Amino acid sequence: MFRLALHWQILIGMVIGSLVGLLLNLTASESDVFLDSGLPAGIQSAEITDSSRLTEIQYVTEAETVKRVIDPLVKEPGSFRNVTELRAEDAIAADLYERFGQSTAKQVGAWFKRIGGLFLRMLQMVAVPLIVTSLLTGILGLGGADEVGRMFTRTIAYYLTTSMLAITTGLLVVNMIRPGLGNDDDAPRAVAENIGSSESLSDILFNQVQAIIPANPLAALTAPNFLSIIAFTIAFGIFAVRVGGTTAERIRNFAAAGFDVMMAMTMAIIRLAPIGVLFLIAYVTATQGIDVIKALGWYFLSVVLALAIHAAVTMPLILWFVARRSPTDFARAMSPALLTAFSSASSNATLPLTLSNIEQRAGVSNKTGSFVLPLGATINMDGTALYEAVAVLFIAQLHYGVNLPFTQQVIIAVTALLASVGAAGIPHAGLVMMVIILQVAGLPLEMQGVILAVDRLLDMARTAVNVWGDACGCAVVERFETQ
Predict the structure, then answer these.
(1) I need a surface site. Which of 52, 155, 212, 406 has the fewest CB within 10 A?
(2) Taking the CB of residue 34, how many other CB atoms lie within 10 A of it?
(3) Long-range CB contacts (within 8 A, 24+) of 30-36
(4) d(C-alpha 448, C-alpha 307), whole Å
(5) What is the three-class DSSP state of 423?
(6) What integer pLDDT is reported at residue 310 of this predicted model?
(7) Half-sphere exposure of 289 (CA within 13 A, CB side)
(8) How far apart are CA 106 and CA 173, in angstroms?
(9) What confidence category does residue 190 fall into, taking pLDDT thresholds of 50, 70 and 90?
(10) How many helices (H) and strands (E) are present in the chain, helices listed first?
(11) Which residues of 328-345 are buried (b: 16+ CB within 10 A; e: fewer)?
(12) Confidence of residue 272 (pLDDT cuts 50, 70, 90)
């Protein structure tokens, strides 16, 4: 039976959801309610005016008249970015709005959000076991303890360096283009400090290091504290390899079996992405209007530009100056694997071809290729790390209406690096990792629905960059191993 590819299903879900949401936004996003009965005790009257962005709530008591404004851009004193902030300051105004003042578009959008949230909840469900089994499988596949030495250290150092370079590129591009702000130079940058932490950068970095070391690994699993989970799993895998023997073999078999099951479960959940996208994009467009669609185009451009800079500028420079290889010749040798990675959006599925190309076409030894590439398919995700950083900053710009301050961007960069280490080499694995970074950044998970619509195309591009980074890593490690 003919069945559309998943990315086409997601695109159709996006179109349907966008049309439904925009129709609601255009026809039912305005509401003006005046109430003088049925109100909470002590409230004589209330008037609530609701629109796509701005909401005004005014109520009268025996003592005073109180006016509250919900404005995501916080352009005037006394405004609140969302109902949660309003409730912390004035529970009465928040209750009045939620009970009486929401427009039809926002009421229906709330139900869309709840249904789409089930899809996000399933992604959360598989995140921890997928990270643990993916990392253990990759590390324990290295072989005996004699394999964990100089080559391992150089490989890890290369992967961490290129991933941070990729994330830095992504942050620079997204701060220049500002896709979530609609390229509006009048965006209220002055309020950005309200979002950030009052801690110094050194305190934030130390707290991130502290978060990497779990006081209780089991508690980190149940919390979940993803930075602790990733760090402990890497350490556990490395020391399991060092112990070796039947102990390492049992753990390797258990991790491989668990990873197979979690991959199957993750792929089954991702097949529901078209439905999740439909409801989540309908919620966003119903409550925010057509501006979010325009912003999506700028976001797509930002990710593609950042990926292009990393793949066509940063990596060739590393090949030329560090590996002493011609970037054009090396890219030509790896082109079959890169095209396969782009079309399949899976670095794991491309791994056999990548191994063949790196040895037979690029002239890298089997010893280096068989060590560096399997490890890279698990923990080296330059394109994914870059994408995660850009996507989360884009979502933050949409949500807050301003750029996040520098200290918050540092947290996102570190988390994106560690999350990319735990990303499985399968299509749409970045969706699972995105949940982690959104939670760390304190952003609403449902905002992920905005970017799901173009995730497949970006997934293809970032997977090709992931494989390109792995291949370049082989050339770099080979050069130092043969000295």
Answers:
(1) 406
(2) 11
(3) 30/103, 31/101, 31/102, 31/103, 31/104, 33/100, 33/101, 35/96, 35/100
(4) 20
(5) coil
(6) 95
(7) 10
(8) 33
(9) very low
(10) 20, 5
(11) eebbebbeebbebbbebb
(12) confident
Task: Name the CA dihedral angle for 407, 413, 419, 420, rounded to a multiple of 10 degrees.
Answer: 180
Q: How far, in Å, CA of 363 to CA of 380, rounded?
A: 21
Q: How far apart are CA 118 and CA 284, in angstroms?
A: 16
What is the predicted pLDDT for the residue at 77? Answer: 64
The per-residue pLDDT for range 53-96, each reduced to its tens digit, is: 688 889 998 888 888 888 765 556 667 767 877 888 888 888 88
Q: Which of 118, 155, 161 is nearest to 138 (CA)?
A: 155
pTM: 0.65
119: nearest Cα among 4, 250, 274: 274
Q: Which of 275-279, 292-296, 315-319 has the highest mean pLDDT?
A: 315-319
The tens digit of pLDDT for each residue in 327-367 reads: 999 998 888 888 877 766 667 667 777 878 888 888 888 77
Q: Is 194 helix (H, G, I), strand (E, B) or coil?
A: helix
* 39, 46 contact by CB (below 8 A): yes
Residues 6+ apart with CB under 8 A from 203: none
How far is 50 from 33, CA to CA, in rounded Å? 9
As given in the structure block, the two tokens for residue 437 are: 């970074």
- Radius of gyration, alpha carbons of the chain: 24
For residue 188, is the peptide bond before it cis, meaning its omega torsion is within 30 degrees of 0? no
The token duo for 124 is 């959360």
Whether pLDDT at 204 is above 90: no
Q: Do 473 and 358 meet the contact criterion of CB atoms below 8 Å apart?
A: no
Long-range pairs of 291-297 with CB within 8 A, sequence gap ≥ 24: 291/182, 292/398, 292/450, 293/18, 293/22, 294/182, 295/179, 295/180, 295/181, 295/182, 295/394, 295/398, 295/450, 296/450, 296/451, 296/453, 296/454
Residue of 414, 415, 416 whose CA lies nearest to 387? 416
Q: Are 308 and 336 in contact (CB under 8 A)?
A: no
Sign, CA torsion 126/132/138/143:
negative
Task: Count Cβ atoms within 10 A of the Cβ of residue 243 and give its class: 0-12 exposed, 13-18 middle, 19 or more buried.
Answer: exposed
Residue 124 has pLDDT above 50, yes or no: yes
CA 12 to chain centre: 22
Can you give the pLDDT at residue 423? 58
The rounded Cα 149 to chain-centroid distance in angstroms is 32
